Amino acid sequence: MQEIKIEAVNNFERIDKFLSEILEVSRSKVQAMIKEDFVLVNEVSTKANYKVKTGDLITVEEMEERIIDLKPENLPLEIVYQDDDLLVVNKDYNMVVHPGAGNWDGTLVNALLYHIKDLKAIKGEIRPGIVHRIDKETSGLLVVAKSEKAVENLGEQLRLKTVTRKYTALVEGVIPHNRGRINAPIGRDPRNRQKMACVENGKEAVTNFTVIERFTKQTLIECVLETGRTHQIRVHLKYIGYPLVGDPKYGTRKTDTTHGQFLHARVLGFDHPITSEYMEFEAELPKYFKEYLDNVE
């Protein structure tokens, strides 16, 4: 880990620009590090547009370095919608969105590069067109930008929290109330950097949920995101005592993790980045999810 003390000469300089020059890496790489909490200011999460102040202590945790040679791969890809500026895909539960530590191939990005010949949008070095993501073990809808303008516009909609995102989730335990709102900040788990947790100095995170159906020991719910933090639904549901069924990271050991957590990004809605027309898409539950529900008591 590297520690950097801010001197007066750098006062009020954007942190992403400052670190890009200090660390000699691309600005997009720094922004990715900040988003994943590999960069802290005075031991607190920050944003890429934060302006450093004299006396600030910046800590930078090392990210695994690797030269990525992105290769197109002929992997199954369900395209729900596509035009000149974007596409919407229905991701399988067992696919990582973009290359990273431990997953350098077999990702959604590799599949996109094979199936989409006019994918021009580049965000960072290894995330062409990716403006948001869902976990490997989560299935469902994802929008991918095909132009730089679409990247910027969709990214802004996500920042302004105007994108509609509804998830279907199956949790352990019987939730007694019909609706709930979880407002708890999320950051890196201080006891395990590979996990996220609800922590006092984390980033704002809000999840709303509605009960769809109650079973003997489990509950089917719909979750609506106001924010989009890493592992948000998984962390929030564990936080209130109702972890996702099958969650290999945050769930209970007794559940079947064969298909990962039972979490499906069912509805996705946004304004088209060029026409401004509102578009909404829905993807039915995967076969294994529906079969499980048919047999649960």
What do you see in this structure?
This protein has 297 residues and is an alpha+beta fold. Among the domains are: 2-60, Structural Genomics Hypothetical 15.5 Kd Protein In mrcA-pckA Intergenic Region, Chain A (Roll); 166-265 and 291-295, 2-Layer Sandwich (Pseudouridine synthase). It has 6 helices and 15 strands. It has helices at residues 15-23, 27-35, 108-115, 148-159, 232-239, 287-295, and strands spanning 2-5, 39-41, 44-45, 57-60, 78-82, 86-91, 139-145, 164-172, 179-183, 186-189, 192-198, 206-214, 218-225, 263-271, 278-282. Strands 5, 6, 7, 8, 9, 12, 13, 14 and 15 form a 9-stranded mixed β-sheet that branches. Helix 1 (15-23) crosses helix 2 (27-35). The protein is globular.
Feature tags:
297 residues; alpha+beta; Structural Genomics Hypothetical 15.5 Kd Protein In mrcA-pckA Intergenic Region, Chain A; 6 helices; globular
**Total helical segments:** 6
**Helix share of residues?**
10-25%
Distance between the termini: 50 Å
Structural class: alpha+beta
CATH topology group of the domain at 166-265 and 291-295: Pseudouridine synthase
Question: Care to give the gist of this entry?
Answer:
With 297 residues, the protein is of the alpha+beta class.
Q: What is the topological layout?
A:
Blueprint: E1 2-5, H1 15-23, H2 27-35, E2 39-41, E3 44-45, E4 57-60, E5 78-82, E6 86-91, H3 108-115, E7 139-145, H4 148-159, E8 164-172, E9 179-183, E10 186-189, E11 192-198, E12 206-214, E13 218-225, H5 232-239, E14 263-271, E15 278-282, H6 287-295
Parallel strand pairs: 7-14
Antiparallel strand pairs: 1-4, 2-3, 2-4, 5-6, 6-7, 8-13, 8-14, 9-12, 10-11, 12-13, 14-15
